[in-house]
Design brief:
- The complex is a heterodimer.
- By secondary structure, chain A is mostly beta strands.
- Chain A has one domain: Immunoglobulins (Immunoglobulin-like, Sandwich).
- Helix content of chain A is about 0%, strand content about 50%.
- In chain A, β9 and β10 form a beta hairpin.
- In chain B, β6 and β7 form a beta hairpin.
- The chains are: A mainly beta, B mainly beta.
Chain lengths: ~110, ~110
């Protein structure tokens, strides 16, 4: 069974640009979660999507947004990039009705 | 405000020893407490999880101890092996599937 996949693996942007990160969940999973992991820090909850709807959101500004597509894949958009947005962005997927989360390998975003 | 506090930040254990990592939380609405293991360059992998209605859960060499009144939970790794060397994260989730992670513990098991 294929795990959670994320693309790209690395992304380099300059301040003020927009970044788009993509996530494909495990087959059968309807929930997708996004987290930010800054260097040396724990994971910070960004967004939770389930059945195409945004269900919950962490304490991040509105320039962090995303969506979930009918096939349950998801993308995270970060607008007006700032230097402190440099981090590993992790996507996790989960089966219907359960909290269990399975993480992908992440996208490392570097903002110059 | 840090919802989940994890300690220690780093831990060195001899092969065969017991590794203990502790976490504390404040929000009594949390009802799901997973532990994750993360190797460099990889995403976190779910190790074991517990709900507040049990005080202990064991899976192989990994045990979660949960103290609801103290709002604390801990991970015990028995017979620690060099392959267990990784960063461990505790987490707490509420019934809105919002998860808060601890800051992580870097475990080094010496051969």
């Amino acid at each position: 069974e294929a795990g959670v996949t994320q693309s790209p693996t690395h992304l380099i942007k300059t301040r003020g640009q927009q970044a788009t990160l993509r996530c494909s969940p495990i087959s059968g999973h309807t929930s997708v979660y996004w987290y930010q992991q800054a260097l040396g820090l724990g994971l910070q909850f960004l967004l939770w999507y389930d059945e195409g709807e945004e269900r919950n959101r962490g304490n991040f500004p509105p320039r962090f947004s995303g969506r979930q597509f009918p096939n349950y894949s998801s993308e995270l958009n970060v607008n007006a990039l700032e230097l402190e947005d440099s981090a590993l962005y992790l996507c996790a997927s989960g089966p219907p009705g359960r909290e269990t989360q399975y993480f992908g390998p992440g996208t490392r975003l570097l903002v110059l | 405000q840090q919802q989940v506090k994890q300690s220690p930040q780093s831990l060195i254990v001899q092969k065969g020893g017991i590794s203990i990592i502790n976490c504390a939380y404040e929000n009594t609405a949390f009802d799901y407490f997973p532990w994750y293991q993360q190797f460099p360059g990889k995403g976190p992998a779910l190790l074991i999880a517990i709900r507040p209605d049990v005080s202990e859960k064991k899976e192989g060499r990994f045990t979660i101890s949960f103290n609801k009144s103290a709002k604390q939970f801990s991970l015990h790794i028995m017979d620690s092996q060099p392959g267990d060397s990784a960063t461990y994260f505790c987490a707490a989730g509420d019934n809105f599937n919002k998860f808060y992670f601890g800051s992580g513990t870097k475990l080094n098991v010496k051969p």
